[in-house]
Amino acid sequence: MTELINFVSISLILVGIGMYGLIVKRNAIRMIFAIEIIANAANLNLIAFSRYLGDIQGQIFALFAIAIAAAEVAVGLAIIIIAYRLYKNIDVSEYKYLRG
Amino acid sequence: MIDISSTPIMIIILLGSVGLAIPIVDAYKKEKGKNKNKLFSAITFGTLILSLLIIISRVVGGEPLPGMNFGNDVLTDDMFGSFFAVSLLIVSIMVSASSWNFMRGISNYSSYYSLLLLSTIGMILIAYSTDFVMLFIAWELMSIPTYALAAFSKKDPISNEAAIKYFLFGAFSSSILVFAIGFVYAVTGTTNIGDSITLLAELSASNQTPDKLGGVIPISYLAIGLFVAGFGFKMGLVPFHMWLPDAYEGAPTTIGALLAAGTKKAGFAAAIRVIVIGMFAIGLDWSIVLAILAVITMTVGNFGALIQKSVPRMMAYSSVAQAGYIMIGLALAPYASSALDGSLFHILNHAVMKSASFLAIAAVAIALASYSLEKYTGLGRKMPITAIALSISLLALAGVPPLNGFWSKLVLFQSAIDSGTVISWGPYLAIAGLLNSALSLGYYLWIIKKMYLDESNDMSRVKEPKAILGVLVFAIIFMVGFGIWHAPLLEFASISVPTHIDQIVPPFGNITQN
Q1: Under an 8 A CB cutoff, do A39 and B161 touch?
Q2: Residue A22 in contact with partner chain B when CB distance is under 8 A
Q3: How many degrees, rounded to 5, is the angle at CA B340 between CA B337 and CA B346?
Q4: Higher-confidence position of B513 and B468
Q5: Alpha-carbon distance B140 to B36, whole Å?
Q6: SS3 content of chain B, % helix, strand, coil (to 5)
Q7: What is the pLDDT of residues A34-59, one digit of tens each?
Q8: Which of B39, B72, B151, B188 might form a disulfide with B163, Cβ 3.0–4.6 angstroms?
């Protein structure tokens, strides 16, 4: 049980770091990194619970989630490359066409 | 193992093979330009129509299981899924036909239509999935193509900005979903939605002896809260709506229609299957949270729309408000028998009304190259059919009789008033909904007044894009026709709502009997 609590605490700390990055940082790549940290915290959570329950299903789901997160980040990085071509800058606070 | 001839598998095979074949055909065809657009648009349109016909024929033949079904498989073939598949396919058909006009200038036709088809599969599978792993994969299959589609105008900074905002919030919401699924898995030890709901109901029933289950109920409340947040980002509920107007306005307008009418409805499909059923298994206190979210969502959406100058942005805020009306049915599901009927009915109506209004805006953008409300002056003279379609869809959104939006709002508000016998705050939702409908008429009528009553210098007729015109005529027939004769749609909605909730969730049965 203490083992489970340790892993869940690490996962919650990672969520905290990720939320901090998402709220404070305005660089698009850093924001993607923050989201990835949160996604990996969620995967760690799943694996810890899967190990604690002695059930394999959670680990299978974590593998799916990792693969899908990779696909998601590939699309996100492509969008950011286009943004860099258009603005020569990836600071999200500089994008100001849409307001209101 | 699910049957190979069941509806979701047939849809995957049909749409998936065509969606993957389109880029291959593109690689082998050497010729460039407009012919490819025509070819791929026709293929996409035909495939979507074919799958719609398959689903409708199976529904008419009575093959899907009635109501909402939870099996041991990852997918089920039930009426609930079929209902959402029909509404989402109507949206995709309207979008693919209009893209023939709207997407004429782009470079990669094949990827556009291929992504459109793949995203459609994702949306449909969300409605059919009965396992959290399948639900998550379908959720991402819906989301990832739409990130790319939102950024499709590569030279346009506005489209790119919209895509970045949409992507950051979308990726964040999918991480939240993994967390929520992880917590449900921690409590129940299974990823099957039906099993985990049954286990949650048993746990909450045995919660009177908290000696060993002390920590379990808070974790399941946390999981439900995370589900509300994760699905809420796509549904556009108010604390999670900040990306939504930017994304709907900035994305290419046909994709704006897909996002507003398609992905949002898929979010509601997931929410009804997971949140509404699951959360009432744990306890009924949650419904007040959904009710508060509903009222805040519709109010913020309508006030936000009042001050906009850009028409797609106004429609984006209006779709936030419409999500609030649909939430009334979700919040009152355990107290009034017709609440979920009303929600589903309004979901189908909203899918057609909202995509019609977005596609009318797309037609104006092609002809006049502007989204600003100022340019809509005298549109009734310049583009008569587009203006009529836009007016009818706006009036239907506001709920003016005898259009279809009126009947679904009537069912929703009626169920809110009926629930007053069980729960004291129920009728206030109907009052909030009525006041908001009156408020929303303010900006809907403002657009209509601009189009018909205001004079502009140049009142000569402009050529209207043909494919969008066809789609809009279909939408007019749908909105007016089912406004006059709404019984079949309401019947379809009421056989699609979960019927045997009582067996799955014991507390639910007690409430409905009282």
Answers
A1: no
A2: yes
A3: 135
A4: B468
A5: 28
A6: 80, 0, 20
A7: 999 999 999 999 999 999 999 999 99
A8: B151
Strand partners, A45: none
CB distance B157–A86 less than 8 Å?
yes
Q: Which structure tokens are listed for B203? A: 């746990």
3-class SS string, B97-127: HHHHHHCCCCCCHHHHHHHHHHHHHHHHHHH
Give which of B139, B167, B176 to mutate to test A binding, by max A Cβ within 10 Å. Answer: B167
Give the gap in angstroms from C-alpha B5 to the nearest C-alpha of chain A: 26
Average pLDDT over residues B484-494: 90
Q: Answer yes or no: do A72 and B140 touch at CB < 8 A.
A: yes
Query: What CATH number does the domain located at A2-94 have?
Result: 1.10.287.3510
User: By the 8 A CB rule, do B261 and B351 touch?
Assistant: yes
Residue B207: pLDDT band (50, 70, 90) is low
Q: Choose, out of B161, B310, B320, the residue to mutate when testing the contact with A (most A CBs < 10 Å).
A: B161
Contacts of B146 in chain A (CB under 8 A): none
Q: Where are the domains of chain B?
A: 7-513
- How far is the CA of B340 from the CAs of B39, B328, B499, in angstroms? 40, 9, 11
CB-based contacts of B313, cutoff 8 Å, min separation 6: A100, B245, B248, B249
| ipTM here | 0.96
Cβ of B189 and A73 within 8 Å? no
Q: What are phi and psi of B406, to 5 degrees?
A: -65, -45
Within 13 A of B505's CA, how many CA atoms are on the CB side? 29
B171 and A65 within 8 Å at the Cβ level: the answer is no
Chain A CB contacts of B133 under 8 Å are: 57, 60-61, 64
Position B490: which residue type?
Answer: L
Spatial distance between the Cα atoms of B217 and B283, rounded to a whole number of angstroms: 10
3-state SS assignment for residue B422: coil
Q: Give which of B142, B158, B164 to mutate to test A binding, by max A Cβ within 10 Å.
A: B164
Interface membership of A51 toward B (CB under 8 Å)? no
